[in-house]
Amino acid sequence: MRASDLVVPWPTVTMSTPALDTTRILADADLPGLIVVDEAGAPFAVLPGTQVLRLAVPSYYQDDPNLTHLVDEAAADVFMRELGGRTVRELLPPQPHELPVVGPEATALELAALMARTRSPLVAVVDGGRLLGAVTLHGLLDRVVPA
């Protein structure tokens, strides 16, 4: 089984896409992450939904989970407002990581190893510089886990 057998169309965002728009895309389509593309439409990064939460949830709550119990429900329900006017550029980690990108001939094992190594729930599939879509963890497991 090859990446070309598992690839599905996938939405993309750019570095200048507003962070709140990104969260709407993730939520509306129940996606684990998005592919960030550069000006030429080539994959620049994969943005997992958890990285969006890292920016939306103030670091003091992440560092001390006991503090979250002190916030009333009404205030806790609006934490995504922390994203304000931020962009995708601010959601990406400061250190460049290995980009989870493969060609259409990548095997299921290559996909699984890349997902594990990069801790990415999806891998972009590129052919000749053109983004074909993504292979998701869910899509990969559906095909490789015995019935």
Automatic annotation (TrEMBL):
It holds the Pfam family CBS. InterPro entries: CBS_dom, CBS_dom_sf. The keyword Cell wall biogenesis/degradation does not apply. It comes from Catellatospora coxensis. PROSITE patterns: CBS. This is CBS domain-containing protein. The keyword Nucleotidyltransferase does not apply. Residues 94-147 form the CBS domain.
